[in-house]
Design a protein that fits this description.
The structure is a single chain. By secondary structure, the chain is mainly β. Helices cover about 10% and strands about 35% of the residues. The chain is built from 3 helices and 15 strands. A 9-stranded mixed beta sheet has the order 1-8-7-4-5-12-11-14-15, with no helix packed on it. A hairpin with a 4-residue loop joins strand 7 and strand 8. The N terminus is likely disordered.
Length: about 260
């Protein structure tokens, strides 16, 4: 009886492990990646309503000339009621790049990130109904962007500039562009711990949050973002606040005049 119980327990555990390795909604991955199903489960939470969707457009260079600053544009404006956009790299040593909660902004974001090898890069878009819509692209790369120390340490005054915000608003086109001075260390370089911005919040003058970013290690050093708004609803100024994983506060204001 005891042996039977052990055997049954082992069988149940094996079945649970197998189930955990297989998403409840298997998809026909257009990139035939060996990692997509793992990320579908571990990063997206194995959603019951998910599909690949051409309306989620991901624009990037075919090949990454600079592994430390790969430009990426996510455009999910064709999908209504977007609550969250999760950006991932299938073969990144740290696959999650960031989450974007557009709120009052458009479901569109430009960013830069570090790449470690050739990979599919995806934008997974969650709507208010809980459905997920996934788009992506392939980027070729020689790699190494995630495992090198930040270049900021070559400068003697990097700590004085830490957390400084540069950027401006373009009301006519509804764009908000910013750069934040920060090393964004992944923790993968020898002897250098993780040191990254964790979150950035964008609010209007009344204190209402209009959009939010939750960043992960692959976001590039001195991270740069462009947010997009309906020009008719573009705020005259945008307050930016956040913190890094060491508790350093980040704060600044974007206006129609450039912030140096």
């Amino acid at each position: 009886m005891f042996r039977y119980g052990l055997s049954l327990c082992a069988t149940l555990l094996a079945g649970a492990a197998l189930a955990a390795d297989t998403p409840q909604v298997p998809l026909d991955d257009p990139f035939a990646s060996g990692m997509w199903e793992d990320h579908q489960i571990a990063i997206l939470g194995d959603p019951a309503d998910i599909r690949f969707d051409d309306r989620v457009r991901v624009f990037a260079p075919i090949a990454a000339e600079d592994a430390f600053h790969v430009p990426l544009l996510i455009d999910a404006t064709a999908i209504p009621d977007v609550e969250e956009i999760v950006v991932t790299a299938d073969y990144g040593p740290i696959p999650k790049i960031l989450s974007y909660f557009p709120g009052e902004a458009q479901a569109k974001l430009a960013l830069r990130f570090k790449i470690d090898q050739a990979t599919a890069v995806r934008a997974s878009v969650r709507t208010k109904s809980g459905s997920w819509h996934v788009g992506g692209t392939l980027i070729d790369a020689a790699g190494g962007g995630c495992t090198a120390p930040a270049q900021a340490y070559a400068s003697d005054d990097w700590e004085e500039k830490l957390g400084e915000i540069h950027g401006r608003l373009w009301a006519a086109t509804g764009r908000a562009r910013l750069i934040v001075d920060h090393p964004m260390d992944t923790g993968l370089a020898d002897g250098i711990p993780v040191f990254i911005i964790r979150d950035l919040s964008f609010t209007n003058d009344a204190g209402q949050e209009l959009a939010r970013l939750a960043l992960s290690e692959p976001v590039n050093e001195d991270p740069a973002f462009t947010l997009y708004f309906d020009p008719a609803r573009m705020p005259p100024l945008l307050h930016v606040s956040g913190r890094d994983n060491n508790g350093n506060q980040i704060a600044g204001t974007l206006t129609g005049e450039e912030v140096n």
